């Protein structure tokens, strides 16, 4: 996977949140306030939601060794609420963390809200030391913090393995 796209209400606040919560780094700004806003619906087939707004800013950030996160700040009216787990489409971003307690504390300090206590992962992720918790970003986006220090179990029907970050030496 190369990257995920996420629309945020304020680029600077979202960037600050991802940096403080997860150590994100800026790769580049593809569209800045100094650029002419790219009108969705100007003939380019870029999104289905082409009539609602203008791209104001676009930034690619990276957290650790995972795929990039392409942030968009788009001015549009009316603005909809972020999707949740029961909504169709991409509904959350999962951040792999090495230790769940300090990661949750750092995310909350940066402005996230924990939606539950830390809990175990699902059946194939329940190796020793595993843990998970969902938080909402300051703008309402859903983020899962996930710790699986001892890898996954796989059923015999598995066709591949899930990516995990390389172990630090």
Give a description of the structure.
- With 169 residues, the protein is an alpha+beta fold.
- The chain is globular.
- It has helices at 11-22, 100-109, and strands at 3-7, 25-31, 38-39, 53-62, 68-76, 93-96, 113-114, 131-136, 142-147.
- The longest helix has 12 residues, at 11-22.
- The two termini are 25 Å apart.
**Mind summarizing the main beta sheet?**
5 strands, mixed
Taking the alpha carbons of the first and last residues, their distance comes to 25 Å
Taken in chain order, the helices and strands follow as: EHEEEEEHEEE
What is the count of helical runs? 2
**What is the total tally of β strands?**
9
Q: Structural class, from helix and strand content?
A: alpha+beta
Radius of gyration: 18 Å
Q: What is the subunit arrangement here?
A: single chain
Assign a percent range to the helix content.
10-25%
* DSSP strand content: 25-35%
User: What general outline do the C-alpha atoms trace?
Assistant: globular
Tell me, rounded to a whole number, the average pLDDT. Answer: 87
Q: Which regions are unreliable across 5 or more consecutive residues at pLDDT < 50?
A: none
């Amino acid at each position: 996977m190369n990257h995920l796209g996420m629309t945020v209400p304020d680029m600077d606040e979202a960037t600050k949140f991802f940096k403080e919560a997860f150590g994100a780094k800026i790769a580049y700004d593809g569209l800045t306030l100094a650029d002419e806003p790219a009108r969705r619906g100007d003939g380019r087939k870029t999104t289905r939601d082409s009539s609602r707004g203008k791209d104001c800013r676009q930034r690619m950030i990276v957290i650790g060794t995972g795929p990039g996160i392409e942030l968009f700040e788009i001015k549009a009216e009316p603005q909809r609420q972020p999707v949740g787990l029961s909504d169709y489409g991409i509904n959350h971003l999962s951040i792999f963390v090495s230790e769940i307690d300090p990661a949750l504390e750092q995310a909350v300090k940066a402005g996230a809200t924990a939606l539950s206590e830390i809990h175990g992962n699902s059946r194939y992720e329940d190796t020793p030391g595993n843990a998970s918790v969902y938080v909402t970003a300051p703008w309402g986006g859903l983020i899962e913090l996930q710790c699986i220090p001892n890898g996954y179990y796989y059923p015999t029907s598995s066709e591949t393995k899930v990516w995990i970050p390389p172990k630090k030496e």
